[in-house]
Amino acid sequence: MFRSLLTFFQDESLTSFVRGALKIRTCHSIYKSCHKILEWPEVWEHRDKRIKEQFESGVRLGVGCFSLMISCLPPKVLKLLAVVGFTGDKEVGMAELHQCISHSYTLRAHLGALILLTWNLIACYFLGGSLILFLRARLSLVSGNIEDSIRYYNASINSQDSYRQFHHGCFWELIFAHCFLREWHIAAAYAKRLAKESRWSRTIYIYYLSILLSTDNAIERMKRDETVQALLIKVDRYRSRIAGKSIPMEKFCSKRASRGLRIGSLPFANFEFLYFWNAMDVISDKPKLIKPLLSDLMDTWSEVKSEVDVNEACLYRFLRGVLSRHLGLFDEAENCFNDVIHRENQLTELSYLIPNAHYELGVIKQVQSLNDQAENHFNTALSAWCNEKIRRIENEK
To answer: Residue 103: phi, psi to the nearest 5?
Structure first.
């Protein structure tokens, strides 16, 4: 067994891999043959009982280890291994190791106990614990299986209470999951828990709580608006500084909160939140999730278009263009982005919309194999971003 494992480390060629695999199979076959010998009473009839116990503990240790290790593999791999004679069952492996330990005076009993201890304290935690559940939830989220991801995130949360910070990571991911399903009020509940429990950035959490809460039509409008305004006032209060510098995302949230207080509402901030964290790209190939978001965005515009200024109007057109691009509606998306660019001189805030609109146009042209036009838009976007950065640095002096 050890020689076969050393073969993998000694040489990484395919030949070495096949040679090592054959040696492991031979070792597995030997253990299976020895396991059959245990069931032959005539072999042990005139032998010392202690010899049989030593032999049995070694065989059961080997069979148990093989069964445990193979049982950890994915089901598809298990089916392939079964063809060449490998079988793995966790219950069988555990039973064999327990029988090995039962012969407490044998040489291998302590090794069997150590293997079981390692399995129960380490392997089981990682194979069925919070980390694996979190990663499985993340995979489901980026694959567009939002309901599955929510279930796995909650299972990860429920699997342990020792590390509350790990819960906070799950809460953050659950905000996006529920936003994808347009369950804004549930996303707001997780933002509220983060604002209350996490110390990472209360400025960001409180801002997100306010913009998500503003979408909850189940709350009486006057009470909801008062709560949102009260939260926006708190946003700037918790800003952090590192080496005297503001955190960029906190600075953005603070500016948007100030604007919300000044004009009374931020009707498209929840969609802007998804764009800023590249969440729309995560579900770009899931029309069943993009279409409802676009419908919600257009419904919101219908309600507020007579009340908003040119900055919010451009933000709406920009977000509509992004969602249209993900749906493959390139003409509609181009019209939206060009509309934003043509209003550049009218914008008094949200200056980031111009370079981002050029970038989005570059993406469309690249998909259409119009590489020269795409390069022009990307260069324009890069130049605008650099100029904006220089302007911010000069303002901070």
So the answer is: -90, 75
Output DSSP code: residue 236.
G
The token pair at 340 is 């934003």
Q: Which residue type, as a one-letter code, is found at position 70?
A: I
Residue type (1 letter), 1:
M
What tens-digit pLDDT sequence spans the chain (397 residues)? 556 555 554 554 556 666 666 777 788 788 888 988 888 888 888 888 888 889 999 999 988 888 887 777 667 666 766 766 677 788 888 899 999 999 888 888 999 899 888 887 766 555 557 778 888 899 999 888 999 999 999 999 998 887 788 899 999 999 999 999 999 999 999 999 999 998 888 999 999 999 999 988 888 888 988 999 999 999 988 888 776 777 888 888 999 999 999 998 899 999 999 999 999 998 988 999 999 999 999 999 999 988 899 999 999 999 999 999 999 999 999 999 999 999 999 988 888 999 999 999 999 999 999 999 999 999 999 988 887 777 766 665 5
Q: How many Cβ atoms sit within 10 Å of the Cβ of residue 95? A: 15
- Cα separation, 378 vs 359, whole angstroms: 5
What's the gap between Cα 333 and its chain centre? 28
Question: Is pTM, for the whole model, over 0.85?
Answer: no
Neighbours of 152 (CB within 10 A): 23
